Amino acid sequence: MNPVYITSIGKFLPGSPVGNDEIEDYLGKINGKSSKSMRRILGQNKIRFRHYAMDKEQKALYSNAEMAALAIRDALNRNKEALDHKIDFLAVGTTQGDLLVPGFASMVHAETNLPVMEVATHHGVCASGMQAMKNAYLHVRSGEQHTAVSCASELPSRVFKHTRFEAQKGLADRPVPFDTDFLRFMLSDGAGAAVLQHQPAASGLSLRIEWIDNQSYANLYDVCMYAGTNKENDGHASWHDYSSIQEAASDGAINLKQDIRLVNEMPKVGVNRFFELADEGKIDPAAIDWMVCHYSSHFFRDEIFRLLQLGGLAIPEEKWFTNLYTKGNTGAASIYIMLEELLNEGHLKPGEQVLCMVPESGRFQTSYMLLTVVGSSNEDRAVIEERQPEAPHLEYNEADDVQAYLVRQLVQVWIDFEQKLAHVPVIHKLYSHKFTLDDYKALMENIRQQVIDGSQWIARAASYIAIEHIDLRSTFIAHARDEHRDFQILERNYVAVGGDISTIQSGEKNIGSEALSAYLFQRASRENPVDLIGAMWIIEGLGCRMARYWGEMIRDQLGLGDEEVSFLLYHSDSDEKHFERLEAVVQHPMLTADIAARIVKTAKTTARLYLLQLEELGNV
Fold first, then answer.
1. Which residues in the chain land under pLDDT 50?
2. What is the distance between the terminal CA atoms of the chain, rounded to a whole angstrom?
3. Is the Cβ–Cβ distance between 363 and 224 less than 8 Å?
4. What pTM, to 2 d.p., does this model score?
5. How far is CA 469 from the centre of its chain?
6. How many angstroms separate the CA atoms of 386 and 577, rounded?
7. By CB distance 3.0 to 4.6 Å, which of 8, 315, 378, 480 could disulfide with 78?
8. How far apart are alpha carbons 369 and 619 in whole angstroms?
9. Alpha-carbon distance values, 450 to 28, 515, 541 (Å)
10. Angle subtended by helix axes 470-483 and 566-586, to nearest 10
11. What is the per-residue pLDDT across 559-575, written as a single tens digit (0 to 9) for each?
C-alpha cells in the first residue's frame, strides 16, 4: 500500500467579500421585507464576510462546476509538477450540483478540460467533500492511480434568492419558515481542491494522510438538513410524489431546510466519535498541533469545546483553526478552504499533526482526517501576487437609472473577468513568480495581431455610426488614431529582449485571437455599434488596471529595464485617458436600457474571448 500525500491545495471564492449589511442586497428581501431572523442568526454564527457567485440582480456569475474547475486549476497551478496530463482520478463532492443528471463530477471534469480519466460524484452535505477525499486517498493508496484530485464545491446562494420564495403559494400569507430562513444567512459559495500523490512534493511542504474516518448515523436520526420533501406534509414522502413540480415548489418541498429541533445533536455525534477514535488509539490529543474543525456556526464551536472538556480530552483553544468568520460557511468545501489557508499562507511546520473534523447534519455523519506535515519550510514559499479584484473607476450620473444600471453591470463583469484572469496559466505563472523570458515573448507574439486589429475595428465602428451622432463618431475616430501604431512599441519590446522581428511579424493569430477578432469586427459592422464600448471596457480596463502592474512584475522578475516593457507601462497611462472617452459614451443622451443591455453583453463576450486568447497561447 502506498503512502498518500496532499501535494497542493487550491480554492476559488467568487466575487468580493460580502459583509453582513450587504447580504440582502444579493439574496434580496422577500416581498420587499427584511428578514426578522437575520440579526439573530448572524449574532450566533458570527460570520462577518462570505462570497456569493451571483450579483445583486441575482444573476449567476459562475456555475457550481465552473467554481470547482477554478479551484482545481488553482491547486494544479500551485503544484510543483506539471500535472495536467497525469491526473488519473477525480472525486468531487457537493450538496447540490447544477443539473439533476448527469453526475456533478462529470460536469466538473468537462469544465477542467483535463484528459480522459475515472471520476466519482459524492452527493450529500458537508461530509461529501470528505467522502471525495477518502475516495481519492484510497485510489492512490491502493496503487490503482498515482495522481488524483479531490474537490468540493458549493453554490447555495441561488436557491435562497427572494424570487424563489415569492413564487411559492404557501408563503403568500406567511413569512418564510425559520428552518429555511436560518440557512439563508448561514451558507455561502466557494470551492476547494487538493492534489493527492503517492510521494510528497519535490520541494516545500506536503500533508501526509495518516487515515480518514467517515461514519454515518442515519440509522439513528431523522433527516435534519434536507431538500426534496416537506416534513409538515405527511402526504408526500418526496417531491417526486407531488402531481407536479410546481405543486412541490409551492408547498416548499424543494426549499433547502434545517430541522432546528435536531441540529443540536450534531456536536454530540461528532464529539462522541472523537472519544471513540481516542479509545482506538488513532487520536492522541496531546500530539495534535492544529485542530481544523468545520463548525458551521460559532454557536456549535462553543458546544464542541464544552463537550470535549466534559470528556477530559480537550485540545487547547490556541490550536484550533478556522476561517469561518472571513470566508463563510461553504459546506463541503470548507475543510479544503481551511487547509488551503493553513498550507499556502505559511502556518504549518514540518512534523506537525493536523486533525480535521467535519460534522454533518444532513442525516448525521461525522468525518475525521489526520495529517502529518512533511517536507521543508526553509525553501521560499510561492508568493501569489494576485490582488483583490477591483473594477476601473468610471464616472457617471448616479441619478440616471440607466447609467447606474450599466455601470453596476460592467463592474460585475469586470470582477468576474479579473478573477478568471488570475487563473489563466500564463498570468498565474506571473503572479506566482514562475514567469520566464519565453513566456514574455509568447505573450507578445500572441497579442500583437489583436493590438493591430484594435484600431481597425474601432475605425470600422466609427464609419457605421450615424451622422446625427457625429460626436460619438469623433470619439471612436480619436480612439482609433491613438492606437493605430501601438503594435510598433510591442515589436520594439520583443526585439529588445532577444526576439527576432521576423518571428513576431509573421506570427499567426491563435484560436482565441481569431475568435476575438472575428467577433469585434462583426459587431463593428452593424449600424450604430455603440455596444462596442463594452469591449473597450474590458480592453482599456486591462490597460488601466493591469498593464503597469503586469509590466513592473515582468520587469522585476526577468531583470529587465522600463524600455523593455514600455508597451505595458505606456498603456497604463494612455488607457486612463481613453477612459474619459468611454465615460462620454456612458453619459451620452442616446443611452437607453436596451443599448445598456447590449453593451453589457458585448463586455461579457469580449471578456470571455480575451481569456480564451490568453489560454490558447501558441495554439494556431
1. 380-382, 575
2. 44
3. yes
4. 0.72
5. 41
6. 25
7. 8
8. 42
9. 41, 11, 15
10. 180
11. 999 999 998 887 665 54
